[in-house]
Design a protein that fits this description.
The protein is of the alpha/beta class. The protein is built from 8 helices and 9 strands. It has a single domain, classed as Copper homeostasis (CutC) domain (TIM Barrel). The protein has a 7-stranded parallel beta sheet with strand order 1-2-3-4-5-6-7. Strands 8-9 form a two-stranded antiparallel ribbon.
Length: 240
């Protein structure tokens, strides 16, 4: 989620942790220090910060990697509970060396290798590489567009991971399909976006000017407490 409003709504709805980022239209990039600090003051659940210096692919220059290292340190200083990142090489293999460097730098924070995993060349090899690099968790849809579409791959990853790394399922999960995902993949953790579009309250709008992918800024996406609460109820119902 990319706003304080969404983070607090997620906590009120019963979420156990939030992944904080900016610019979800780019799939999420590193949030500002101000957003991290304010979110830390406002939410008491787990706060995991995205470490991604730009949109696009997951192959990073030396300068971009230096930015990531500094952002990991910033997240630690501001009280985050974990960081979320993903690095690949030119052949779309996990960059084990750099991943290990960030995981070591982040300690004692928890580390998650994000959906860069899903666009890697070989999911099974990438699993072994992430384990070797020392990350605590992999966020994945099983290499598919959604978790439902990747159910078979997710189940395979869970079985191969055993207790070496946590497999967290993601991708289009909501209260309607979460039971199927949990049952058929055996994952113990899920990640859900649950974004809802909301219109700007501004009365005057200059419609001939477009700023960015979302236009002039008259619509944005937020997480609503009610949708989080419904997902939590569905998870609890499955466990019962």
């Amino acid at each position: 989620m990319d706003s304080l409003e969404s983070a607090t709504a997620a906590e009120r709805g019963g979420a156990k942790r939030v992944e904080l980022c900016s610019d979800l239209l780019e799939g999420g990039i590193t949030p500002s220090a101000g957003l991290i600090a304010t979110a830390r003051k406002k939410v008491s659940i787990g706060l995991h910060v995205m470490i991604r210096p730009r949109g696009g692919d997951f192959y990073y220059s030396d300068d971009a990697f230096d930015v990531m290292r500094r952002d990991v340190l910033m997240a630690k200083q501001l009280g985050a509970d974990g960081v979320v990142f993903g690095l690949l090489d030119l052949e779309a293999n996990v960059d084990v060396q750099r991943t290990r460097q960030l995981a070591d730098l982040a300690k004692p924070l928890k580390t998650t290798f994000h959906r860069a995993f899903d666009v890697s060349a070989d999911l099974r090899q990438s699993l072994e590489d992430v384990v070797e690099a020392g990350a605590d968790r992999i966020l994945t849809s099983g290499g598919a567009e959604t978790a439902v579409g990747g159910i078979a791959a997710l189940y395979d990853l869970v079985k191969r991971a055993k207790d070496r790394v946590i497999i967290m399922a993601c991708g289009g999960i909501d209260d309607q399909n979460v039971g199927v995902v949990l049952e058929k993949t055996c994952v113990r953790e899920i990640h859900a976006g649950l974004r809802t579009p909301v219109e700007s309250p501004m009365r005057y709008r200059r419609k001939r000017i477009s700023m960015g992918i979302s236009g002039a800024g008259y619509q944005r996406f937020v997480v609503q407490e009610s949708r989080v609460a419904q997902l939590v109820r569905s998870v609890r119902a499955f466990k019962e």
